Amino acid sequence: MFVGLWAGAQFQKLGAQTDGEINLGDLVDPDNSKLDEIDQDWADYMASPEYAELSPVGKQLAEDLYNGVRGFYDEALDTTIKYKFNKQLEYNWNMLLGGQWQIDRRWQFRAEYGFLKSKQSFMASLNYRFGI
Question: Using one digit for the tens of pLDDT, what is the confidence trace for 49-99?
């Protein structure tokens, strides 16, 4: 039976950069349901008694407002967002504590714990050696 213990430090560095672009419409309204809802609300309003009671100037203002909202929404959905960022670890270094217990010639247990501030990891294994 053997026991081994260790302590150490590990350095990791990520050199990953991500960039790309995404259409705002794919995020906000992928199936155009919101746009359909705006159009339906406008159609419902034009059929309402409140719209019928508006003066010609009031109807023109309401229509201008609808066209402005609809145009703004159309433009916003056609906007492309470009992004680029570097991914990196908060801390490149972490501490390690580990141990290994060789129970007999065939069985061995090993565990290792890495830590430092918000970065933590744990690894454990149970090994069997075949008699080949």
Answer: 999 999 999 999 999 999 988 888 888 888 899 999 888 888 889 999 999
Burial of 46 (0-12, 13-18, 19+ CB in 10 A): middle
Q: Domain segments of the chain: what residues?
A: 2-12+87-128, 24-85
Give a three-class secondary structure readout of the chain.
CEEEEEEEEEECCCCEEEEEEEEHHHHHCCCCHHHHHHHHHHHHHHCCHHHHCCCHHHHHHHHHHHHHHHHHHHHHHCCEEEEEEEECCCCCEEEEEEEEEECCCCEEEEEEEEEECCEEEEEEEEEECCCC
Token reading at 48: 């309402």
- Contacts of 4-9 with C-beta under 8 Å, sequence gap 24+, read 4/99, 4/100, 4/102, 5/98, 5/99, 5/100, 6/96, 6/97, 6/98, 6/99, 7/95, 7/96, 7/97, 7/98, 8/95, 8/96, 8/98, 9/93, 9/94, 9/95, 9/96
